[in-house]
Amino acid sequence: MGSKVAPGSFVGRAGELARLEAAMAAATAGRGGTVLVAGDAGIGKTRLADELAERRAAEAVDAARQAHRAATRLRALPLQRELELLAQRARLDLIGLRPEDAGKPPAEAAGLGLTARERQVLRLLARGYTNRQVAAELVISVKTASVHVSHILRKLGVSNRLEAAAVAQRLLGPTWS
């Protein structure tokens, strides 16, 4: 009982990804089988699997955030703490960017010379996000996230992400991130 993604598929094709999603849903429901992603080298089989994994990771982050918000709202402290520990182990950010994060920054942030989008990226860098995670959170490409990070490093006069995060924490305080 297996599914097969056709050889010669191109990455990002909705049909191939939909078949993989269906196979994952069947496996989750206990009707698992084997999924064979076949094809010649260089046709993007790994990328196709990565796309599926990224979708699943985004779903997990959304579910964890919803659960944490509910636990917080209900003041279910033991559940809230367990969700925080799970998120820490899985390296999930339970907060994400809040709507107010897109608003006016603290006065000190304006002095850094960063655009509003660069401030959002810096906020995520201060939380330890990778470029891929920044891209997913802000719904931009990984390349665009990388460009924002490069601009931030240049504008802050630092050589790496850790130093940028440290500058943000030092100048803007721990509550800013």
Which structural traits does this protein have?
5% strand, two-stranded parallel ribbon, 177 residues, Arc Repressor Mutant, subunit A, flat, mainly alpha, 8 helices, single chain
End-to-end Cα distance: 48 Å
The number of E-state strands comes to 2
Number of helices, counting only DSSP H or I runs of 4 residues or more: 8
The value of Rg in angstroms is: 20 Å
What sort of overall outline do the alpha carbons produce when their principal axes are compared? flat
Main sheet attributes: strand count, strand direction, barrel closure: 2 strands, parallel
Total domains: 2
| Fraction in beta strands | under 5%
Structural class: mainly alpha
Strands in their spatial order, largest beta sheet: 1-2
Blueprint (SSEs and pairs):
Layout: E1 2-5, H1 14-28, E2 34-37, H2 45-74, H3 77-90, H4 107-110, H5 116-126, H6 131-138, H7 142-156, H8 161-172
Parallel strand pairs: 1-2
Could you explain the architecture of this structure?
With about 180 residues, the protein is mainly alpha-helical. The chain has two domains: about 1-90, no CATH class; about 100-170, Arc Repressor Mutant, subunit A (Orthogonal Bundle). Helix content is about 60%, strand content about 5%. The chain contains eight helices and two strands; from the N terminus they run E-H-E-H-H-H-H-H-H-H. The protein has helices at about 15-30, 45-75, 75-90, 105-110, 115-125, 130-140, 140-155, 160-170; strands at about 1-5, 35. It has a two-stranded parallel sheet. Helix 1 (about 15-30) links the parallel strand 1 (about 1-5) and strand 2. Helix 6 packs across helix 7. It is flat and about 55 Å long. The protein starts with a strand and ends in a 5-residue tail after the last helix. Residues about 1-10 have low confidence and may be disordered.
